[in-house]
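R.M. (postdoc): so does anyone remember the format we settled on? I'll just put the structure tokens first.
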């Protein structure tokens, strides 16, 4: 009998818009590394949705994984810890919901603030198509290592 997950990884973006599918591809790669019996729950989504707030409330750690456009000034793979603003300005338009807004909404609705981070990966080509650019494809291993480090710091048993 398996225990319910307290860790949720969410890769989001549109896999039919080139590098916007990075979140999905990183989740696929993590699934291969962590294996089928991992207690870590993994989701792939086109966009973040307010209905996720209920799922987030039951988690202790959430890692969002997304491609970032115009990310050249930062590291190619950035880990951004997310904190809850006690009174955030929430835009609940589904196409504009950010990880920070979703975590804040979870806190507002359920009074719970799970630890959360965004892993942002530099995307280069967001044109129509299901293929990643070579530059984006090359960043997948680095993103996987960054997420494994987050998981290991949270609970080393998650990556064994």
């Amino acid at each position: 009998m398996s225990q319910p997950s307290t860790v949720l990884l969410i890769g989001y973006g549109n896999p039919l818009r080139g590098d916007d599918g990075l979140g999905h591809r990183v989740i696929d790669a993590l699934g291969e590394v962590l294996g089928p019996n991992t207690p870590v729950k993994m989701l792939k989504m086109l966009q973040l949705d307010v209905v996720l707030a209920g799922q987030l409330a039951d988690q202790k750690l959430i890692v969002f994984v997304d491609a970032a456009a115009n990310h050249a000034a930062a590291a190619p793979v950035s880990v951004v810890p997310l904190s809850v603003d006690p009174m955030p300005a929430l835009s609940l338009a589904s196409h504009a919901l950010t990880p920070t807004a979703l975590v804040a909404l979870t806190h507002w609705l359920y009074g719970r603030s799970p630890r959360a981070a965004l892993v942002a990966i530099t995307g280069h080509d967001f044109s129509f198509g299901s293929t990643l650019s070579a530059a984006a494809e090359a960043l997948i291993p680095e993103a996987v290592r960054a997420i494994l480090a987050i998981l290991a710091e949270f609970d080393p048993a998650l990556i064994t």
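R.M.: ...and that's the designed sequence above, right after the tokens. Also worth knowing: Residues 7-159 form a domain with the Rossmann fold fold (CATH 3.40.50.1450). The first strand starts at residue 7 and ends at 12.
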